[in-house]
């Protein structure tokens, strides 16, 4: 009975370090590894991916497929059930070693008919509908990424700023023509840390006038989806439209919020545009959405 290991990353900027760590901890004996080319899209159906198709051709009844987390193989309910149907047809087991579904027996079959148990289908559909796969993806990418980095001797968190005793050296080197990228490499810090150290020497630097108020700093606020949908059809100023267009969609069950980064003044202007949602003629869900956004905006303006 062979142990077949499947690995995949979504972009060529990622590595399999995290998957390797999870699978190594599982203690799989004599693994036969099938690894997709870097950048194989998760949007491609698992049964159409070259290495997974090769794995299925290689597999024999009684073999077990091992993956670190379910999202390495599938991303949606349809994909899960399609893969399970094929594995059950070929009498191949599936073992997920971490994250969503890792505690479930996805290979359970009806003792008389041999069909995939309806309870397995129900659990898969319920967890997927609840967004468990997406939450697991976000959590595991962060947590296990840190574990993999620590295993290699790297520490997480921000890179350090330029030490005080090196500030003069950095500024002198910059004035002598050393690039920001080169200085960042020399001192083992980020480019942002170098830019902060030489900020007043940069061509775009403009000294603030004496007594001038400090510029507003951008803040990140979550805008309910119903507010965002309303504002997309409204007449907005360029800065307001840009903030809305650059917002990051965050799924919330059946709805979503739009995570917007903008200065408080822009948030305030966006709030003023959605006044009609607070009217008695608006549906209750719209009034609630506007009220939630107003509370978040007002917390920064007051």
Automatic annotation (TrEMBL):
PROSITE patterns on file: RECOMBINASES_3 (PS51736)
Domain of life: Bacteria
Single GO molecular function: DNA strand exchange activity
All residue ranges annotated as the Resolvase/invertase-type recombinase catalytic domain in the record: 2-153
Family: Belongs to the site-specific recombinase resolvase family.
UniProt protein name: Resolvase
Provenance organism: Streptomyces natalensis ATCC 27448
């Amino acid at each position: 009975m062979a142990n077949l290991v499947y690995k995949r990353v979504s972009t060529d900027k990622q590595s399999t370090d995290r998957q390797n760590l999870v699978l190594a901890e599982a203690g799989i004996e004599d693994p036969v590894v099938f690894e997709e080319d870097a950048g194989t899209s998760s949007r491609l159906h698992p049964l159409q991916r070259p290495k997974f198709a090769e794995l299925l051709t290689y597999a024999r009844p009684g073999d077990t497929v091992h993956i670190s987390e379910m999202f390495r193989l599938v991303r949606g309910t349809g994909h899960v059930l399609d893969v399970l149907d094929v594995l059950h047809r070929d009498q191949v087991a599936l073992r997920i070693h971490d994250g969503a579904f890792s505690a479930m027996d996805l290979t359970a079959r009806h003792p008389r008919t041999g069909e995939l148990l309806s309870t397995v289908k129900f659990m898969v559909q319920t967890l997927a509908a609840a967004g468990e796969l997406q939450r697991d993806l976000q959590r595991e990418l962060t947590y296990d990424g840190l574990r993999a980095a620590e295993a290699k001797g790297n520490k997480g968190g921000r890179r350090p700023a330029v030490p005080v005793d090196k500030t003069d050296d950095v500024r002198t080197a910059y004035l002598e023509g050393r690039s920001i990228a080169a200085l960042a490499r020399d001192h083992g810090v980020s480019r942002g840390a170098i830019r902060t150290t030489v900020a007043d020497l940069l061509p775009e630097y403009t000294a603030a006038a004496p007594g001038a108020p400090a510029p507003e700093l951008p803040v990140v606020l979550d805008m309910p989806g119903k507010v965002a949908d309303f504002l997309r059809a409204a007449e907005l100023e360029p800065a307001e439209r840009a903030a809305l267009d650059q917002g990051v969609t965050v799924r919330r069950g059946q709805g979503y919020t739009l995570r917007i980064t903008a200065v408080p003044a822009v948030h305030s202007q966006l709030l003023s545009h959605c006044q009609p949602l607070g009217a008695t003629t608006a549906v209750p869900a719209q009034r609630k959405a506007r009220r939630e956004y107003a509370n978040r905006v007002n917390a920064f303006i007051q």
